[in-house]
Amino acid sequence: MFDLEFMRPERLWWLAMIPLLVGLYVFLLWRRRRKSRPHAITNLERVLPKQQAWKRHVAVGAAVLALAALNVAFAQPKGEVEVPRERATVVLAMDVSRSMLAGDVSPNRLIAAKAAAQDFLEMIPAGFNVSLVSFAGYATILVPPTTDRGVVSASIESLEVAPSTAIGEGIYSSLDAIAQAPPDPDDPDRVAPGAIVLLSDGYSNLPRPSDQAAREAKKQGIPIYTIAYGTPNGYVETDGRREPVPYNPAELSQIARLSGGKAFTAGSEGELKQVYSSIARQVGYMKVDQEVTEAYAGFALAFAVLAAIAVISLGARWP
Question: How far apart are CA 298 and CA 205, in angstroms?
Fold first, then answer.
């Protein structure tokens, strides 16, 4: 459940009692069987409830587990858990090169990407700043970091295609956008975390190199979540000729790896929405060390209740 550490690990020595208690119980069972002798069943024994062995085993087992869980709680365990972020800056970097007109994603890559990006906006926590960057032959910060989702939504709808693809420039512009994020009014000196969500069908064909940009993002502590969008069969028509534009997951995967982010692929609008949902979860939450004593105290209580029920059933005749 958790990658556990303990605030008071010296208290775990009490767990040594567990094998001793189990050994004592096994010894008593063995001793009882050895001393038992066949005898006639009396009328009194016919009236008294019958003690079934499995009930005794359940009672003892649950009691031992309750003791073990209670001891773990006594050692004050802490684990890495996810908690919601209060503030962050998320940059949506969207490829608007001509290859985004490919119809392998219905009705085409760009229109489907716009629809999924609109859904993504609704998944981002309200307190987060969102910025929109578009890139083709060059990159543009269309919307600086803002909490106004309406402005970002309108800019997404107005995206239009342009020639060439400069993924590296898109990353650098995204880093510039994060630097423009307004400070927290309650804590102006604190820098909110940032992340870049970059959607492209790949294949940079203009400098600056995307791997160099990814290393710069890593240096600034900004992970890039890349989405390789499209299929191997994509094409656009130029002067009546079909021009293949297959997606390129390799370059985008390298960008994610170098920046400390994560790479995704999507071959349809439905898959893209699922990817955005996963990214929203990762961006919206952070992992922190937190004491989880209550969880193990709860386990101990549950096992104790089970042990009590088993003990009661040994002396009761259920209807």
Answer: 58
> b/e string for 16-33 if b means 16 or more Cβ within 10 A?
eeeeeeeeebeeeeeeee
Report the C-alpha gap between 202 and 104 in whole angstroms: 15
Amino acid identity, position 148: D
For residue range 7-17, list pLDDT tens digits in order.
888 888 888 88
CB 195 within 8 A of CB 88: yes
At 117, is the secondary structure helix, strand, or coil? Answer: helix
Which residues have CB under 8 Å from 95's CB, separation 6+?
A: 134, 135, 136, 165, 167, 170, 198, 199, 200, 201, 229
Q: What angle do CA 228, 229, 234 make, to 5 degrees?
A: 120
Cα separation, 239 vs 64, in Å, equals 78
* Prediction pTM value: 0.68
Q: By C-alpha distance, which of 6, 184, 153 is closest to 85?
A: 184
Residues in the chain: 319
**Alpha-carbon distance values, 256 to 195, 199, 211, 222, 271 (Å):** 11, 12, 9, 11, 19
Q: For residue range 303-317, what is the model confidence (pLDDT) as tens digits? A: 888 888 877 777 655
Q: Which residues on adjacent β-strands are paired with residue 228?
A: 200, 265
C-alpha–C-alpha distance, residues 235 and 41, integer Å = 88
